[in-house]
Amino acid sequence: MQGSTASRGAPTVALFAIVGGLLSAVGSFLAWASVSAAGQGVSAKGTDGTDGYITLVAGIILILYGVARLTGSAMGTKKAMAVIAIVAGLVAGGVAVYDAVTAKERVLDEASSQVASSAGVTKDQARTLLDQAVSSGQVAISLSFGIFVVMAGGVLGFIGGVMGLRSPAEPAPGMPEMSAMGASAPAPMSPSAPMSPPTTPAPMSQPAPPAPPVPDVPSEPDTGSSP
Questions:
Q1: CA angle, residues 20, 21, 25, in degrees to nearest 5
Q2: In the chain, how many H helices and how many E strands?
């Protein structure tokens, strides 16, 4: 039963890891945030910064883990591989969540540097102008679809790693399952229990021999009465 449970769980673990890795890797190349002003918009992909490459590497690790679980390849112990997958899922999802929370501040900081160099003002002055533009609605900063794809990939990869960590170990090739061995193998004899001697059938009772015939004793002749 343990071997059959492990064989059924391996495709599920691999599915979560591979799908999570693909989402994290593909989402790294998609737009994470967009800035629109005066009817024009600019999108920023994940790979435009270092964070996108971090999530890309995490996605590749999840894909490799899923393929290894699906094919049964020996890449270290399964528990160690599962821990690596859990870390990769946490990294991909964590980076995406962090960038989503800090997207507005990061976009404004980067835009402030560009505006300051082009307008000939200080970075603080450029940041103040951008903050006013955002507050008045002249500049809109929003999250794009790609960053949510990476979040979903990190969550799926994390679930796949946890499932792989908790799944039972698969039996070694050529070894019978414990249930089959228990059904066919006889119960071991306790060494302390004495062996009872084999019982022999009771002998059948023999019929008693016939009694020997009693010989006839001749009777004395009758001499009659005395004269």
A1: 120
A2: 7, 3
